[in-house]
Amino acid sequence: MAPVKLYGDTMSWNVTRCMVALEEAGADYEIVHIDFDTREHKSPGHLARNPFGQVPAFQDGDLYLWESRAICKHVCRKYKPEMLKAGDLEESAMVDVWLEVEAHQYNAALHPIIFEILISPILGGTCDQKVVDENLEKLKKVPEVYEARLTKCKYLAGDFISLADLNHVSATLCLFATPYASVLDAYPRVKAWWDGLVARPSAQKAATLMKPSV
What we know:
It catalyses: RX + glutathione = an S-substituted glutathione + a halide anion + H(+). The protein is of the alpha+beta class.
């Protein structure tokens, strides 16, 4: 069977989010580089894979997907459904809850910070410190909730690692490339949780592939 294909640039945390899931699932996959300098992401060929002209895009035989979190879910459903706790109604519901928290609470605050600090200068802009400061205040509220949750269980969805934990890896690696990595230091359980995640081979591979951005 041909490997699945992940299209994008590994300096993108959305691309490496998918890569972490693929690594954890033990999938046979290939990363196909998309060149932003030549605007390959806006080419007809790539638009056929992702109609928004963004990355990642994903190919599994005749199936094409875009949006990183949807790709991650597909990968887990196909190769490692235990990462979603498929088959257990209550546990899978908790995975869903924390997947939503990652997307709409954690990443919603973190994304503007890492964009302003890491991406805007690459694009020729300058860092808007007001945006950074406003979102730092939002971000600081999230690990407070995580700390409380992690007093009750080892991982976010329960005493089992899931995609809800792993989806944090790529963007948090970017946070640690900014001056604000210490935001997690005030939360010992969150820090221990993160230290366990980043020690995993999938996270170490993501960290290597994301350089020089992280």
